[in-house]
Amino acid sequence: MEQATTVKVSLKNPAEGQALFGPQDKFLHLIEQEVQATIYSREEEIVIQASPQVTTRLEHLFTVLLALIRNQYVLTERDVLYALDLSRELKADQLLDLFKGEIAVTHKGKPIRVKTIGQKQYVSEIKKKDIVFGIGPAGTGKTYIAVVLAVAALKEGKVKRIVLTRPAVEAGESLGFLPGDLQEKVDPYLRPLYDALNDVLGPEQVLKSLERGLIEIAPLAYMRGRTLDDSFIILDEAQNTTPEQMKMFLTRLGFGSKMVITGDVTQIDLPRGKSSGLVEAKRILSGIEELGFITFAEQDVVRHSLVQKIIVAYNEDKEG
Question: What is the pTM of this model?
Fold first, then answer.
């Protein structure tokens, strides 16, 4: 049995302890579920009793979380779980960089920040490279961040328009049987792209931009035969492209343009026997240094922590 050691982390005031432990000590309970330790606060300090390895990890964790609190950052359950995960390798201090810069502001003035290290790498790749692939599970912010950066590039005058597209594979060939004009038929498949745009620009601004042609939202088939200059182009749900479609799309890249291709290779809806253009592109193109490939992990899921557990359980079942 390892000898328990005691470590104390000083607080400036009791309110810091409350922020650190969360409402009804929720964050404290999350930490205690994960590690074997006795943790409590005494006036102006937090006392940790555990094995030397665990006390080192928790001291590191609390120091980082306190630094965030002192920067007026409001911790969420998701942040605490992610910091706890990173603290295993004493890497939680990487969070301090994450929360410093905001990548944009929503139309309501709320700052949009990256929430995971995977997202941070993704943002810096998109800024550096003309074509970036963001591959990973749902809820990692792949599409949302791409849209946010596209809007920022448009506002800063770096591009003249935004083009958003996804393959209309879910509809199969039955698109013709849906009621309404083409815009209405296509919309359900493109809804997530509209949602991200509405968040950043606000619905009115989105409508105006669509009318003026600053933003174009179209099925992938509409890209054929065009070259897109000075545009920020996002291909979403790219796992559902065929290799031919993917090659067609990638070769539309014009001067002064950026492309972001997002997808989840575990969610392929193509007919049996058809290979995914995203899987092929990763295999064929990963040797080209000017292209960026960012693979998101389960730890990058920024939805409810239960969603993360569901994804992990499905992945384990598949492997088992």
Answer: 0.76
At residue 170, what are phi and psi to the nearest 5 degrees? -55, -30
- Taking residues 293-318, report their average pLDDT: 81
Nearby residues of 204 by Cβ (< 8 Å), 6 or more positions away: none
What residues contact residue 276 under an 8 Å CB cut-off, 6+ apart? 239, 240, 241, 242, 243, 265, 268, 270
* Minimum mean pLDDT range among 60-64, 90-94, 242-246, 255-259: 90-94
- Residue in the block written with tokens 């007026």: 72
Q: In this structure, are residues 80 and 31 in contact, taking their beta carbons and an 8 Å threshold?
A: yes
Closest residue by Cα to residue 216 from 183, 174, 261: 183
Average of per-residue pLDDT across 70-94: 87
Sign of CA dihedral 73, 75, 76, 80: positive
Mean pLDDT (the chain) is 87
Task: Write out pLDDT tens, residues 122-173.
Answer: 999 999 999 999 999 888 889 999 999 999 999 999 999 999 998 875 544 4
- Structural contact between residues 198 and 225, judged by C-beta atoms closer than 8 angstroms: no
β-pairing, 258-263 vs 131-135, is: parallel
Tokens for 314, please give them.
Answer: 């499905």
